[in-house]
Amino acid sequence: MAESPAPKRKREENEGENGAAGSHEEAPASDTFPLAELSVRRVLRESARDKTIFLHGQVKGASGDGSDAVVILEKTPFQEENVAELLTKYTKLQLQMSNDIYSTYRLFLPPELNEIKTTVVYPATEKHLQKYLHQEVYLIQETGEDYKNITLPFIESKSFSIQWVYNILEKKAEADRIIYENPDPANGFVLIPDLKWNQKQLDDLYLIAICHCRGIKSLRDLTAEHLPLLRNILKEGKEAIVKRFGIAGAQLRIYLHYQPSYYHLHVHFTALSYDAPGCSVERAHLLSDVIENLELNSQYYQKRTLTFALRADEPLLKKFQESERV
Amino acid sequence: MAESPAPKRKREENEGENGAAGSHEEAPASDTFPLAELSVRRVLRESARDKTIFLHGQVKGASGDGSDAVVILEKTPFQEENVAELLTKYTKLQLQMSNDIYSTYRLFLPPELNEIKTTVVYPATEKHLQKYLHQEVYLIQETGEDYKNITLPFIESKSFSIQWVYNILEKKAEADRIIYENPDPANGFVLIPDLKWNQKQLDDLYLIAICHCRGIKSLRDLTAEHLPLLRNILKEGKEAIVKRFGIAGAQLRIYLHYQPSYYHLHVHFTALSYDAPGCSVERAHLLSDVIENLELNSQYYQKRTLTFALRADEPLLKKFQESERV
């Protein structure tokens, strides 16, 4: 899930110097996009799972002026109501493989039953192109030593701002959104809906528990002394969610991220049936596992190799590359 | 991703009482599945995100006997190399919406550039149908004792058939699909593309390493004595993949499932950038973590609480409910 094409509305840490939001250029509207005159420059991104591809093209010839375009192609979902028609009327089937009761085929359908959704951004600016550009991802195996020598100095050098977290904990912002609070300064936390969840349906339920205690940056800082805090989050978080939303603990996925997107300890609660972004094995650590590991060995997360993925444009990757650790 | 809407085209165990795939019977390979004579009974599941639909059908008429079939349709990913052709040669484009620089269209392609991957399970048993039917999911926390008292007796009582696995290991089926083999009976394995992957693009690369040694049911059976086997799979699997497909080890997600879908030890290799079904934290265990845990403690997976999700219709869930363990 490293490179989800879905919008990323989660909050991240903001680096002190916010040089982000570019200018507000606006381009003229075009009624008919001259697709046949598009020359494809490169593939910006694609997703085999979603059956989408993002292209950078240029429109030349009579109708174009060489302007850039982003063209997004997406295969369309099957429609229940015409699926019988698909299978019986028009089928051309080619056997690929057969083993026991299983076989696979290539099926060819007439175009009108198999359309492609096409989205065009034209003219597109460099900023649009960057937005859709795929980044390679690399797996890092961070030993305890790597954390001390590479990751920790990197985190400390960046002086990330997590003011928005403190605003929540101090009720200076979003106080009306808090679902539950245990106010204990050492072992307490605030439970709040994640921004990704609009709270309109339970299907994609997503909440975050943010601990009151400051200075616990991530999983790497946890020892047995944090067990009371972690047990509170697990137990009281589940209780608050069943009380407010009617979703039982057995239908929740409760986990930490490593690396997290901000370095103040927090725990994710998502509906188990929801294929939430960031719940894959190379990023998520079940809170129940974390508790059991700390019970067995207080130093588990100081010593243990932790695996995570970094995108090619992330500065931390460069640090690992410089140390020849990737 | 317990209840991933993603296609589950992987092969599962067939129960012993299943006439179709019990013991050593082999169902005759059907070169042409009589798709045109399939009557669709119902939609078992569909995913708008994945562009898949799972159908329960029956084959009647001249070529059929009324047997059930599961037919899985999945739109195929775009292929980078023919995308320019898609856009320039054959396009029929219909404007849907235009607003400022953004516009959307319906695009119609010739069938040969827009095929549907079709997987057929035929004849299918009630168990196959249930497997693909959408269900609620529940999280199980299985202690080492639970495994001995609930899960293991359940697995043993079912006498699952994994004849298709043995067919591969003995080169009775799919021999031409093998990417790599270490023939050692104790520490060797076969590496083969997963059925979910059509091998046409690397984006959703998916292979399976199946160990030669029989009797290792799952993660729960692993001890330090299996470290040579696991290290071979990790090292040689990566080497074979970079050699054949040019994908480096740092761009692979290598993991086991618990619970697995069949009880003969196997390891999944997927492209890290691919949001593969079944790679979420409540099911996947990174092979590198498994190796490190066994190095620290040979009994780790015998003693450890393991978390996994079960669907409402799975008989194992009922066993946990009867024991009041969920």
UniProtKB/TrEMBL annotation, chains A, B:
SUPFAM superfamilies: HIT-like, mRNA decapping enzyme DcpS N-terminal domain. Residues 1-32 are annotated as: Disordered. Keywords: Cytoplasm, Hydrolase, mRNA processing, Nucleus, Phosphoprotein. GO terms for cellular component: nucleus; P-body. The keyword Nucleotide-binding does not apply. Decapping scavenger enzyme that catalyzes the cleavage of a residual cap structure following the degradation of mRNAs by the 3'->5' exosome-mediated mRNA decay pathway. This is m7GpppX diphosphatase. It comes from Pogona vitticeps. The gene is DCPS.
